[in-house]
């Protein structure tokens, strides 16, 4: 945000340099946590190892109900890495003097594109291009000319949904915190910090669960899905 003091902004100025600086910081934190958790692995985990193992277990449990445990474990590296990056990016903006990288559309849009291209790639790789795109036509052949373009637009809209939801919410949180600190800079903002922390966690969860949902729609098509569209996928895509 132009005119708001940040430690990195005092070196890079505002604009792309500020975003890149915070991105580097977030990546450094993620790599530090990964290194800290794996440098001395123990059968009975403690400290950072325990925290990250609990996190990874929670990600698997999240995906198990959506795509099954086997697939949830298969896509764990992607979803867990995205989740850790988004969470730290969201939380770092709550600390005065820092800004959330996810408050920039230049960060959230590439994340959404990554998910979009990856789940389509996985669907095509597993089913073949013909079989995969045949599902876009729907179960009723006579309606295929109508359903196919609708499905294409629906899938493309997921890019906008993923990127703008995360960007809009975190940008709004940053603005809220900025105004709150200007009005009441000391004890009064504490309830606001609790609200912003919850929002950061919620937006991370939504991004992760939708990634699993889109992967499930692409690779876990069963007989019931063959005969009718899955309303759960459409519902989650509209969140």
Summarize the structure.
The chain is mainly α and 239 residues long. The chain has helices at 9-12, 16-38, 47-67, 69-74, 76-92, 105-127, 129-134, 144-183, 190-219, 223-227, 231-237. Helix 3 (47-67) crosses helix 9 and helix 8 (144-183) runs antiparallel to helix 9 (190-219).
Explain the layout of strands and helices:
Blueprint: H1 9-12, H2 16-38, H3 47-67, H4 69-74, H5 76-92, H6 105-127, H7 129-134, H8 144-183, H9 190-219, H10 223-227, H11 231-237
Helix pairs in contact: 2-3, 2-5, 3-9, 5-9, 6-8, 6-9, 8-9
Kindly describe this structure:
With 239 residues, the protein is mainly alpha-helical. It has one domain (55-237). It contains eleven helices and no strands. Helix 3 crosses helix 9 (190-219) and helix 5 runs antiparallel to helix 9. The longest helix has 40 residues, at 144-183. The two termini are 27 Å apart. Mean pLDDT is 83; it is low at 222-239.
What is the 3D form? globular
- On the 0 to 100 scale, the average pLDDT is 83
Rg value: 20 Å
Biggest beta sheet attributes? none
The percent of residues in helical segments reads: over 70%
Report the count of strand segments.
0
Q: Output the helix-strand order.
A: HHHHHHHHHHH
Low-pLDDT regions: 222-239
